[in-house]
Amino acid sequence: MTLVGRDSEVARLSAMIHAVRDHGAALVLQGEAGIGKSALLARAAATARTAGLRVLTMAGTEAEAHLPFGGLHQMLYPVHDAFGLLPAGQQAALRAALGLSDETVPDAFLVGFAVLNLLAELADTTPTLIVAEDAHWLDAATADVLSFLARRLESEPILLLAAVRTGAGVTRWTGAGLPELTVRPLSDAAAADLLGQSKAGLTPPERHRLLAEAAGNPLALIELPAAVAATRGTLAAPWLPLTDRLERAFVDRAAGLPPDTLAALQVAALNDGAALAEIEDATAALTGHPVGAEALRPAVDARLVEIDDDRLTFRHPLIRSAVHQNAGPARRRDVHQALAGVLTTDPDRRTWHLASAADRPDETVAAALEAVAARAQRRGGAATAVAALDRAARLSPDPWRRADRLLRAADAGVDLGRTEVVDRLLGAARELDLTAGQRARAAWIGAAFDDGMRDRETDATTLAGLAGETAAAGDLDLGVRILWSAALRCFWSEPGPDARRRIVAVAEGLPLDPHDARLLAILAYAAPIDRGAVVIERSREVLAQPLPDPRAVRLLGSAAVLVGSFDVALAQSAASLTGLRTQGRLQLLARALAAQAWSAVHLVDLAVAIPAAQEASDLAEETGQPYLLGLIRASQAKLAALRGDFDGARRLAGEAERRGLPVGARPVLATAQHARALAALGEGDHAEALERLLRLHDPGDPSYQPALRCHTIGDLADAAAHAGRAELIAPVIAEMERAAARTPSPSLHDGLRLARALLGDDPSAYEDALAQDLDRRPFTRARAELAYGEWLRRRRRVAESRQPLRAARDAFDALGAVPWGDRARRELRAAGERSGQRAAAATDRLTAHEFQIAQLAAQGLTNRDIGKRLYISHRTVGAHLAKIFPKIGVTSRVQLREALEG
């Protein structure tokens, strides 16, 4: 098959196919309708088959876009016998997604991971090419899986090619960050060459006109010559856009077909399936007499459709669109009614056709659409659920039901991350006479995006009131969810003390178990100081018992961050990870890892902080959580400062601030400011560190965050003491002392003990700081030892100073806190003792990704186990290990474990 004028595109695709055994890739082909994307994909598929690859295909159509995982079903049906290669949980997820079982589909990311593992297993024997035609029309669930897959193919013998029409609007492929190939119009010479292959007998003027109008579009150059010849001798047609011209040409071609053929073609155009038997049966219902496959022969001869065994496909989407549009509204309703009549064994598809056939409100059809939405949600089809509820609302005779369905559609739309869809649905709902409960739901849904950061209308106090009203009306679960939204605003923004007190009052008035993890999280976020003791004590009681729900464990870990129990936050965030991974809840997994990373950075536990921050960053970006990503970047900035990478700290802090400043995301800005202060401390610029840290305690500064500022007191005192400006922080220390009287926060009390020592001249303050149980907070102990050693040396007790300074140096070196270790060495040198340089650790030689994989391999996990943990394939794990071993000079996993432990 020769493609005129496409040598460079064909060469690129061929090179990717022939390289797939060494590494995988994904490529998105973009271009206007008819530009030749499908021809390139067909050529790629033929090349792949010749090269011995397995080729799996799918094609999106507008008519099937509402069928969740419909595209995935097309792709995987030829290999469904291989599902048994998967672990039981992944196999169950995949079968549920494809409608092969009645189980509820877990998180879509688990389905994506199952697909990745299935294809990786199959690729062990045969490399695979995946071809997705008209990917802009694939159902959202399939598009999400392909997007997940595309980012994980680097080490797999798998190639994904997807074709997307330019101007198709916002799709999962828009701005996906995948490599792209723009398929451009043919050159003048290539266009003339292609047109020269036409047998329409065009005159020179006709050739000139057609070349000008086609503008290098191959489909136009192939299809329009016959139309031009057919209109020869008539008045020139008015100018139309190229796509309209093509559709008009296809309409004209279809108009000459026999009536039964045209009817069958109309049925095929509106059908959300391609089975020939369905088309024949529905055409018979439409025409009132039997219509067999022979009736479609004229459409095949006219090169409008192709029939392969028992399936009919249109030769180009524009043909389908042309037939669809030309049928007219009344005829389309009749066709949909005929299709509904033959789809008696497929209730979802039958309901969609009944809905399309309806021209007035119909509660029976609306209720059936509700059932479709419920089944779609069980199968992970949020987009289908939104569409079904939206259509059900429009068919609802009763205004209350219409509003309820619109609100439920908007609620489901939040999961899609489509603000424009949610805004449209809420706007339609608000035009109705809503009940108080419905107004509450509308307000809460509108505030649900990005933890409320983009919502400027619904404040935390209003949400708290709505939560109380909703719970009092009998919907406790919705009331708690609304109140949690209000509490999150106390983290991301600063609603003020009155709003915080209102949230606490509503929370404590709800009929919830006092140990409910949701309640404890709300209290921690809304009142981390005033309810800190309650949260810490009740959390201890809850955690004394096993918690089966990883979401509850995650909430307790998150709450522990706010109240300053970082060792608890570390442990509980870690405890939630396995369950969240198993369930494929990647959005919550990103949040759990972010809390784990934030806590580990504060405790300077690099072995946890480095991989947790990296994975959290990857997942936050993949799951579309921009402000969480900003917070993670700020945590990575603190991590860089603690490791002595001051330029990296400032770069990451700047990135975090660029994400947080436009919306005033206070925890992002506070953490970034803290990172800059730590970098300044590490460089010995105590004045800058002091200035930055004071901003965290100024209620008028955007970096002010009431909970997180409590964890900076030790750094604040360190900067003030060494800058000789203790008087500047006296009001802050006094305020924090009052706060400490109301909460047992370990972090706050640790900071104040260090501050008392640094800012006073009493050795008992150092003794008090060092007398605490700090086994789980070694950085805190090392800082107290460093401060004590410095105090002793300044008082010429040089011999006594060496022991705490040595202990501090060794602890800092073990922790990887390079600037603090260097500072202890300088103090020891001033005390007359020299120190050797810190030996490089594995964390210094490996990237964050590599360090995480190395840790898991050292624990004895197989490549497949590691892949399952990290949502990558075993082959990708192997590729990383092949780089890791030489970097740290080992040849086995046993040596790897020893290197990491050393």
Describe the structure.
- The protein has 46 helices and seven strands.
- It has a five-stranded parallel β-sheet, with helices on both faces.
- α16 packs across α17 (363-378), α18 (382-394) runs antiparallel to α19 (399-416) and α20 packs antiparallel against α21.
- With 902 residues, it is mainly α.
- 65% of the residues lie in helices and 4% in strands.
List the helices and strands and how they pair.
Blueprint: H1 7-19, E1 25-31, H2 37-50, E2 54-59, H3 70-76, H4 88-97, H5 108-123, E3 128-133, H6 140-150, E4 158-165, E5 180-182, H7 188-195, H8 204-214, H9 218-230, H10 242-255, H11 259-270, H12 276-287, H13 297-301, E6 305-308, E7 311-314, H14 317-326, H15 329-342, H16 347-357, H17 363-378, H18 382-394, H19 399-416, H20 419-430, H21 436-446, H22 460-472, H23 476-492, H24 497-509, H25 517-526, H26 532-543, H27 550-563, H28 566-583, H29 586-603, H30 606-622, H31 626-642, H32 646-660, H33 666-683, H34 686-695, H35 713-723, H36 726-740, H37 746-759, H38 763-770, H39 778-794, H40 798-815, H41 818-830, H42 842-845, H43 848-858, H44 863-870, H45 874-887, H46 893-901
Parallel strand pairs: 1-4, 1-5, 2-3, 3-4
Antiparallel strand pairs: 6-7
Helix pairs in contact: 1-2, 4-5, 5-6, 8-9, 9-10, 10-14, 11-12, 11-14, 12-15, 15-16, 16-17, 17-18, 18-19, 19-20, 19-21, 20-21, 21-22, 22-23, 22-24, 23-24, 23-25, 24-25, 25-26, 25-27, 26-27, 27-28, 27-29, 28-29, 29-30, 29-31, 30-31, 30-43, 31-32, 31-33, 32-33, 33-34, 34-35, 35-36, 35-37, 36-37, ...
